[in-house]
Amino acid sequence: MLFGTGVALLALGQTSGTVVGLHKASFIVWFGATCMHVLGHALKLPRDLRTRAPGVALRLSVVAVTIVAGAFLATATLPAADRLQDRASVQIGLDAA
Predict the structure, then answer these.
(1) CA–CA separation, 13 vs 8, rounded Å?
(2) Once rounded to an integer, what is the mean pLDDT over residues 71-88?
(3) Residue 70 — pLDDT band, cuts 50, 70, 90?
(4) Contacts with 90 (C-beta within 8 Å, 6 or more apart), sequence order
(5) For the chain, what is the mean pLDDT?
(6) Which residue has the higher pLDDT, 50 or 58?
(7) Is 20 exposed, middle or buried (0-12, 13-18, 19+ CB in 10 A)?
(8) Cα dist. 67→27, 57, 72, 74 in Å?
């Protein structure tokens, strides 16, 4: 939901409205779920780091590909996000230069 509303905001060029509200709400839900997930695994981390899990190479490869794809996507959408941020800054009285 967070990713989808973010893409919709970039595609529609909106800085206010229903999609912005959905994006903000989905961020709050995502952040809470991520915190619970991380904290739920934090106590097991020392034990998990000492044992070698099967498929580590595949997992690291998937993580590396995901990071590269995310960096590419972030770079590709940066101009659109910058224009959207400039429009939002003007609405609240900040210089968009």
Answers:
(1) 8
(2) 82
(3) very high
(4) 96
(5) 86
(6) 58
(7) middle
(8) 20, 15, 9, 10
CA distances from 13 to 10, 30, 34, 90, 94 (A): 5, 23, 28, 14, 18
Closest CA to 13 of 81, 95, 73, 96: 81
Q: Distance from CA of residue 70 to its chain's centroid? A: 9
Domain residue ranges in the chain: 1-51, 54-97
- Give the long-range contacts of residues 69-77, CB within 8 A, separation 24 or more: 77/10
Q: Which two tokens stand for residue 32?
A: 């809470």
Which is nearest to 8 in space by CA: 22, 28, 85, 86?
A: 22
Q: How far is CA 10 from the centre of its chain?
A: 14
